[in-house]
């Protein structure tokens, strides 16, 4: 294994890409500690403790701890993800966006530009909600009630909105730079690093609980065992493939014979990767975002309580959205009609299935059957922290590392990044991380 890592740094281009990625991620983590002006840090730290077991605590997990510190990157990359969801949904129902998707590179550039504009708009709305939320926060410091924002008003709102919108746009640009000039998917890596950054605090809190004899060593061993089992199943889900055999007919061109080989179409059990989790999580953030605009509304506060991740209704909707987005994103990432047409053009056919429409229907049927158990298992792993919190009496911050959204993103992004490193090594005739076969990365749209 040491030789494998040594081979990575023997390739100048790969070494440059990895160092560039690490540098950008370091900048992201530094930005997550630069606070927004006009906030009493001590009062904020005391007040935010009341929100650790609410949806704001979950949002903070995606922001890598930046939300609870009200830093420049407090909104994280979620506005960009939300804008991407909206644009992709429009690509299904709006003819204009459908035309853009078919225009190739120029269409993709236009979609990217519209996604950026949408990111600015969403982050503008969310930053206003955060400013109002901070102005209404009050905590107790030294036995006295202290406001988190000593001087609320127009200037604080304006400064906060400009700071947060700028931070979101900057972090979006950093993610695009990683994708273009680094290694791995930049947006996914930023989310993963933000989640991993919370791990030391979880470990320290667990050690303190053992020292205080609140939780016994046996319970910790059981939790570690559960973590390994869930990680194994997540890897199995991510790597699982259903192979459809494909035969190519022989063609004689002049004196040469072309084709005749056998291959297969890899149908991934989880073609959509971690995107359904991210999409569903973005939708689940909407009620809390809207509720921040109506602090005095009893109805909106009731909605906020129902959509707290301590409530069973939140997890029911969350799991249902994951199943829906798994099918939705799979339909975008894998087009059976296009695959069947390409096979027919190159003389390929599935044994026992007629080329053309019958082939596309056969592939679509297999894809539907393969995706169904994958979507349910994906939803189960995402909802697993709720079960863990109720059976093992642990908080969400700990439960999220033993299953759920955090674990799925970490495993999925890590496998995707390793697959890109693997391809660089094998392309230059170096041994990869696996002795047999390649690490299969997530399929992209």
Short description:
With 445 residues, this protein is mostly helical. It has helices at 2-10, 12-31, 41-48, 55-62, 78-93, 95-101, 105-135, 154-181, 186-196, 199-211, 217-239, 275-291, 298-306, 312-333, 336-345, 357-392, 396-399, 405-427; strands at 138-141, 144-147, 241-248, 251-253, 256-258, 262-268, 348-349. It has two domains: 1-196, Preprotein translocase SecY subunit (Orthogonal Bundle), CATH 1.10.3370; 198-445, Orthogonal Bundle (Preprotein translocase SecY subunit).
Q: Would you spell out the secondary-structure blueprint of this structure?
A:
Blueprint lengths: L1 H9 L1 H20 L9 H8 L6 H8 L15 H16 L1 H7 L3 H31 L2 E4 L2 E4 L6 H28 L4 H11 L2 H13 L5 H23 L1 E8 L2 E3 L2 E3 L3 E7 L6 H17 L6 H9 L5 H22 L2 H10 L2 E2 L7 H36 L3 H4 L5 H23 L18
Antiparallel strand pairs: 1-2, 3-6, 3-7, 4-5
